[in-house]
User: What shape does this take?
Amino acid sequence: MLRVICVRTGDKFNQWYEDNLKYMIDTYSGLKYDEFVVIRQDEYDGVFNKLLMFDRYRDGQNIYFDLDVIIKGDCNHFLRKDLTVCHAWWRLAWHTPLNSSIISWYGDRSDVSDFFIKDPEYYMLKYNLGMDQLLYENIDLQTYNESDSYCSYRTITTEENYNVYLFNQEYLSMLKPGWHEKFCMPLQYN
Assistant: This one.
C-alpha cells in the first residue's frame, strides 16, 4: 500500500495548492498510490502540524510532500523504508541541514510524534526554526541528497533537470508566470 500525504492548515495555502499537488502527482510523479490524504487539523503551530502524520499513518509505504512544490518527473526513487527527509544542501550553515518538504517512511514511525507530544509547547519554543530542527536534533533518519533530483527554487529558479522543485516559502512564486506553470493545473482559485 502506498499513501501520499500533504498538510493544509490555516489560510496560507488555498484549495488550488492542494488540488495542484494531486494533479502533479497524478500527471508527472509516476507514483501508483492507494490513498491521497490531506491533514487539515490545525492542532499545533504551523509546520508542527506535519507531525500528526506520524501518529495517524503507521502502516504501509508513506510519502509526504509540501504543498509548495513543483513535481515534473518520476518520484518513485523517493520511496524509502527508513524515515528519509531532504538534505538541504542550499541552506546557510547556521540553519539545520534538513528540509522536510519531502518525507518518506515505511510502517510505524509514531516515535516521531510521540517525542513531540511529550511537551509540544516546549518543543515549538525550543525549535523556533521549525520542525526540521526538531527532526535533525532528535530523530534517527536518513537523507536524500541532490543526486535524488530535487532542488530549492530559492537557489535554482530556472528549469533544470530536477524532478521536484521545493519552493521553500516562495509559494506565491508558484502563482506567477514562469517555466513551472506548464506543470501546474490552471489557476482557478487565486
